[in-house]
User: Fold this.
Amino acid sequence: MTKDMAQRDRKRILIVEDNLDVQELLYQLLEEEESYELALAETGYEAIAQAQQIQPDLILMDMSLPELSGWEVVEQMRQMPMLTHTTILALTAHASQADKERATSVGCNAHMSKPFEVAAILEVIEHLLTS
Ligand code: MN
Assistant:
């Protein structure tokens, strides 16, 4: 196996989060998993640019972002051929059924409410990356 192929075996995760405390928490959690390669974005525009550039296997998407919301970001990504099938996990502050339905309707693959439990989010991420 070439070095490039070995590196591509690491799953790329793009963390989109404007709250730097939460961003740091997610980064530290996932950094311990050596099979993950991480990237960060703080705004919707940055998220779209990063996603196009690095082609992540999974995007952790905070839906409450300034200017361009996570909802709008996901809708835009789904219109882009290279991001149509990228796995997206929506993170919202509300656990309402309406939020879950909205996450599905804009094209998210899964939804999780904040605050999340560490074990629970790691399990969902692992599941999304292997299914
Ligand atoms: Mn936010």
